[in-house]
Amino acid sequence: MKQDKDTICLGEIPRKTVLVIGDIMLNQHIIAKEKLEQTDSPYPVIASYDNINKLAASARIALMIKKLGVSILLAGMVGKDEEGATIKRMLRAEGIPLVLGLYSRPTSVRKTISICDKPILGLEGSRGPHIKAGVFQSIIQLITLLSEELSTIIICDYGRGLISDELIVTINECCRHKDINTIGLVKNMETDNSIEKYQGLKTIVIDKALLKLLDSNTFAKTEDIEATSLDILKKTGSNECLLVWDTKKAYLCKRDKSLVEIGLSVTDHAFIGADELLVTALTLAYTQNLTIDTSLDKAYKVARHYHIS
């Protein structure tokens, strides 16, 4: 596969690095400002607007982890377009290596239009076709080459075609006899997706609302936290799951049936998904031997300080 100037030499990678694999997106915030003087128009008259770009999806998670002082690599694809070039510039400025790079389909973009700081419209680009087999092979080769340097692999599935059943199975095979934590962040809302797709990953992170959408027959009516968590572990064979229950709390459940409640702050995670914050915190807990509460507090502070949204 073609490499570009953003691809780093494998010899430069420090030991115990975190590899984020997943869909890369760009958030474009278009903030319009109304004219102050009165007009005859019944609609807002725009005087000017600002266009603010921010990293999204897997790139946002990589940014959070990087800001927490953890060595990070990002494996994903961007298009050969202006939005893709913007993402690459932003990653380069943050010191986050993009180890796959360019692809022929358009970059995934989310657009939010606001007037006077009030969001009025959200637009999201099409999901596009599944990524070709060559990219799949490049990811596996990357994991094989870096297996001694990796502490954690985070698989972020936003439903853009990069994360397939076959890829997850193969990643599990590569990590089976290695001391590598594997975390699956489930954000894929495709109707044909199922929690069982993520079998074999050591940890699953998912929001209850999405879980009900994916496996409505099993989870649509249950309000039993322990039963729901254990059913996830049964279906995936995972060691633990982090289940975002509502805006105020999440639960960490292990195979020994232990259940730990984790408090969430509505105001703190309103700008970023609680599940994304929890993945970041869990990674920090793994790499720096911290409690999940301490790690989550650090993730909150970093997100607020750097305005990550």
Explain what the structure shows.
With 309 residues, the protein is of the alpha/beta class. The protein has one domain: UDP-N-acetylmuramoyl-L-alanine:D-glutamate ligase (3-Layer(aba) Sandwich). The protein contains ten helices and 14 strands. The strands form three sheets. The protein has an eight-stranded mixed β-sheet with strand order 4-1-9-10-11-12-13-14, sandwiched between helices. Strands 3-2-7-8 form a four-stranded mixed β-sheet. Strands 5-6 form a two-stranded parallel sheet. α1 packs across α9, α3 runs parallel beside α4 and α9 packs across α10. The protein is globular. About 3% of the residues have low confidence.
Write the topology of this structure.
Blueprint: E1 17-22, E2 24-34, E3 46-57, H1 58-67, E4 72-75, E5 77-79, H2 82-94, E6 101-103, E7 108-115, E8 118-124, H3 133-146, E9 150-157, H4 165-175, E10 181-186, E11 203-207, H5 208-214, H6 216-219, H7 225-236, E12 240-244, E13 249-254, E14 259-263, H8 266-269, H9 274-288, H10 292-305
Helix pairs in contact: 1-9, 3-4, 9-10
